[in-house]
Amino acid sequence: MKNNRTNFSTQTKELIGKLSGYHCSFPECSQYTIGMTESDEKKKVSSIGVACHIYPATSNPKVARYDSKIPKDFLKSENNGIWMCQNHAKLIDDDDSSYTADLLFFWKKISEIKIQNSQRNTKNSKEIDFPLVSSIITPSNLLNIKIAEFTNTLFLAEIWGKDESFAIKELLIELSKNAFDHGKASDVTIHCNKHAIIFKYKGSKFNPLRELLEHKKKNGGAKMVEKFSEVFNNKIILKYDYANEFNELKITSWLNTKIQNIMEQLQPCSINLQNHRQISQEFTTIDSCEEVHILAPLHLSISDIGQISISNKLSKRKKKVYLYVSEASSILKSELLERYSGAVIVEYKNLE
Ligand SMILES: [Zn+2]
Fold first, then answer.
1. In sequence order, what DSSP letters do the residues of 221-236 get, joined into one string?
2. How far is the C-alpha of 321 from the C-alpha of 65, rounded, in Å?
3. What whole-number distance in Å separates Cα of residue 250 and Cα of residue 44?
4. Rounded to a whole number, what is the largest CA-CA distance in the chain?
């Protein structure tokens, strides 16, 4: 059996540890795994860190995350290793339904970016994709905890910010309670695609962004939706859809995601004018959209604004307009606001 294993070399193990700063990569752990041994005249290093295989090193199909298609060279490479403390190394090896390869690759990336950023004292400027994970939540006393576990899994604090992360957790709790108490939902699903978190349940149509906000007496859910929109208006984007008896609320952000990918998430309520110089576009499905997201052309100047012929059509339909600009002066932004009165100007950062 021994020969069948595709172990990491000592050098590779060391590299995996170093890239994560010898911190455990498990959410909410980040334990230091190396330190000095106690009461010793000669100082020695004690390590409780493990370079874990994401795809397993054995050819035994019963082992967690086994996949016969993965080449041996990859199995023993640094790319297939994630650094964990001993407890979490054991945990991820025992349960491959919770700890999928996709999820572990995501944690590895987050762990390495965290260390790189703290060394450079900078913020990340690369796109980070969410893993394709999902959680089914049923009404119970553990609802809040289950939702917190889900948001922790996604390292939202690292990707979108700490306050944003807590607020999304609280928003998801309120939306779930609302779905159970008023929407007669038996369960709700929270899942991810690469660039968004999606809250979903089966039931009659209920748009929390409109109907909760119209409540005269604001309860927990309505208050949360209202404050959330106020505080994170131009950072975290909420988009509601109803299809095939499912209510769906998409939570997304241009923070750590390329703006073009966000525009895709917001379709059909988005229009990407980034590479246009002549601007005369018409929305076809706009009537079903509560709001419209427009990605302005790069390096816009005042005379270009006059060419945005969609502005009149939008204002006639009283749509809320979000205008995404990058590298624009305060002069240009105030001109844009004059043209699109009531619009929200979102200044995004171009990512690598
Ligand atoms: Zn740990």
1. HHHHHHHHHHHSTTTE
2. 45
3. 51
4. 80
**What strands lie across the sheet with 134-137, from one edge to the other?**
134-137, 188-193, 196-202, 246-253, 236-243
CA of 316 to the centre of ligand 1 (A): 56
Domain boundaries, the chain: 2-120, 134-253, 259-347
Mention every residue, 6+ apart, whose C-beta is less than 8 A from residue 238.
209, 228, 229, 249, 250, 251
Residue 281 and residue 348 in contact, taking contact as beta carbons nearer than 8 Å? no
Interval between CA 146 and ligand 1 midpoint (Å): 19
This prediction's pTM: 0.88
342 C-alpha to ligand 1 centroid (Å): 48
Q: How far, in Å, from the CA of 92 to the mean position of ligand 1?
A: 10
CA 207 centroid distance within chain: 22
- Ligand 1 ion: nearby residues, β-carbon < 5 Å: 24, 26, 29, 31, 85, 88
Q: How far apart are CA 198 and CA 179, in angstroms?
A: 14
Residue whose tokens read 């929390």: 208
Do 223 and 167 touch, CB atoms closer than 8 A?
A: no
Tell me which fold the domain 134-253 belongs to. Heat Shock Protein 90 (3.30.565)
Question: Contact, 200 vs 191, CB < 8 A?
Answer: yes
Per-residue pLDDT 10s for the chain (352 aa) are 445 688 999 999 999 999 999 999 999 998 899 988 876 677 888 888 999 999 998 888 888 899 999 999 999 999 999 999 999 999 998 888 889 999 999 999 999 999 998 888 888 778 899 999 999 999 999 999 999 999 999 999 999 999 999 999 999 999 999 999 988 999 999 999 999 999 999 999 998 888 877 777 778 888 999 899 889 988 899 999 999 999 999 999 998 899 999 999 998 888 888 876 555 555 555 667 878 888 888 888 888 877 666 655 665 667 788 889 988 999 999 998 888 778 889 988 887 7
